[in-house]
Specification:
Elements (H helix, E strand, L loop, with lengths): L5 H17 L1 E2 L2 H8 L4 H13 L3 E3 L7 E3 L15 E11 L11 E8 H4 L7 E7 L13 E5 L8 E6 L2 E8 L7 E3 L14 E11 L3
Parallel strand pairs: 4-6
Antiparallel strand pairs: 1-5, 2-3, 4-5, 6-7, 7-11, 8-9, 8-11, 9-10
Helix pairs in contact: 1-3, 2-3
Length: 211
């Protein structure tokens, strides 16, 4: 096992801690600010050193995504490696009363741990910035980023939906013998029954919160 400098050990420890606590790979800017580096060039140097020494490895076919290799004495694939996926963030979604806010062009990128987020690589996933407080009792707050997977919804799922032409983040209710509708997780907000159309755009699988 190749030796690491003290600073490289600190950077690796920070990467592991961030992934376990947040389920996401920290941005170069976050690493820079955490260690007080003068530029992101210093961050890139440490990342490349960790990759060269085998402590992290790129995921083939995925831009700027890595695994953290924790079992370096074993020639087999490390059982504790984190499978990191980079996904786009598309605009905002209302978590209050539905509004005309639509997912627009890409406004950023987010690296997430596939296992922690509960998503599948075989399905398209993306992030949406939350605006509003109708889902606070489900642990989703204004300013959070929800990770959405394009998959069929089931009763009880939290979904990004288009209801009568307006978007919102709500719990999907689909009981036998009843038309599906949307339910808020905050008693101050009403249940939403579509007048004409309810289209589920994706199922919320995880939440990312920046402290």
């Amino acid at each position: 096992m190749k030796d690491l400098t003290v600073r490289q050990q600190e950077v690796l420890g920070y990467l592991q801690l961030h992934m376990r606590e947040h389920g996401t790979w920290p941005s170069f800017r976050e690493i820079e600010q955490h260690f007080g580096f003068r530029s992101t060039n210093a961050v890139m140097g440490h990342i490349r050193a960790l990759e060269r020494k085998g402590y992290i490895s790129r995921i083939p076919g995925q831009a700027r995504t890595y695994r953290i290799n924790l079992d370096l004495n074993d020639d087999s694939p490390p059982r504790e490696a984190l499978d990191v996926l980079e996904i786009p963030i598309y605009g905002h979604i209302a978590a209050g009363y539905p509004d005309g806010v639509e997912t627009s062009g890409e406004i950023g990128r987010l690296q997430i741990d596939v296992e922690s987020a509960g998503i599948r690589r075989t399905r398209r996933s993306f992030g949406l910035k939350v605006r509003g407080e109708s889902m606070v009792d489900a642990g989703i707050f204004d300013g959070d980023t929800v990770i959405v997977e394009q998959s069929p919804p089931r009763d009880g799922d939290i979904v990004a939906a288009l209801i009568d032409g307006e978007t919102t983040l709500k719990r999907f209710v689909n009981k036998p013998g009843e038309p599906p509708y949307l339910k808020a997780e905050n008693r101050r907000y009403p249940t939403l029954h579509p007048v004409a159309e309810l289209v589920v755009q994706g199922v919320a699988k995880a939440v990312v919160r920046h402290l």
